[in-house]
Amino acid sequence: MRIALLFLFLPITAVAADELKLATWNLEWLIAPENLQALRGSCTPEGVRPPPRVRSIPCDVAAKLNRSRADFDALARYARLLDADVVALQEVDGASAAQLVFPGYRFCFTGRRHVQNTGFAIRPGIPFRCGRDLKSLSLGDTVRRGAELVLYPGESREFRLLAVHLKSGCGNRLLNDSRKECAAVGRQVPLLEQWIDGEAAAGRPFAVLGDFNRNLLRDKGPARTDSGAQLRLWPEIDDGDPPEADLTNTAEGGRFVNCSMRQTFQGYIDYIVLSRSLAAGLEAGSFDRVVYRTKDAVARKLSDHCPVSVRLRTAMAAK
Questions:
Q1: How many domains does the chain have?
Q2: Is the Cβ–Cβ distance between 21 and 83 less than 8 Å?
Q3: What domain range includes position 174?
Q4: Alpha-carbon span 275 to 203, nearest angstrom
Q5: pLDDT tens across 177-194, in order?
Q6: Alpha carbons within 13 A on the beta-carbon side of 218
Q7: pLDDT above 50: residue 4
Q8: What is the CATH number for 206?
Q9: What is the pLDDT of residues 6-17, one digit of tens each?
């Protein structure tokens, strides 16, 4: 795996006609300053859970992530270094926030009233159509919806992306663990698999990318117990049935590197997962992670995640 170090910030470049750089980035409560200011006076105290459809932010977030112009500029510089054509985004309060990091891009976002939405930033010149919200994945809007994007609509190389941000708190535990967070993930897994199998059954190439809040590279073993209880996410969705659902985790075989020297995580939770035919166009060794300079990680309010990306030859997706 190549690690992108920030020694200079490159301008956005034109994408080759038959190549696409896909990325995913959780931007940690990214809210435009004017919208954050409007929400600060009615923030939710620690330990209080607001109703699912109420637009609110935790009071500690209001204090911690009150980003300055310099903070947004730093995030935008890392976005330019990433230089991706399509970026799945998580924890973003819609286009007004995203455009501060990805100026000039176009956007698709879920319509959840909550400030944490999933979506996409798309480089100009790439044909696309915003898809539907995968509302079922939100468990009644108590967690994040999935965001669907159709690339190259109507062309022979058309394929679909699903941006996800699954429930946190069950990162390395079995799904039948007694924790309520694991129960929530357990409810999300069949809904995610339903989308995957639907695309696979239709013979459409696809990718699922985003914050899985789970170390999929360690999610090995049986998907279920002998009695049918769910145990693991990855073997449940990567069952090759239908054949297009024979999935590739693009992080497989790569070396894990933290976003900055200040972090001590042991593995990824942000992934780009490709269907069988889409994976045929994956450029070998292209899995990459942009990492933060320690100086920026200390001085700037960036994100507790940093982006990962891959390169695809889109002609391989042609039906």
A1: 1
A2: yes
A3: 2-6+17-317
A4: 10
A5: 999 999 999 999 999 999
A6: 13
A7: no
A8: 3.60.10.10
A9: 333 434 444 456
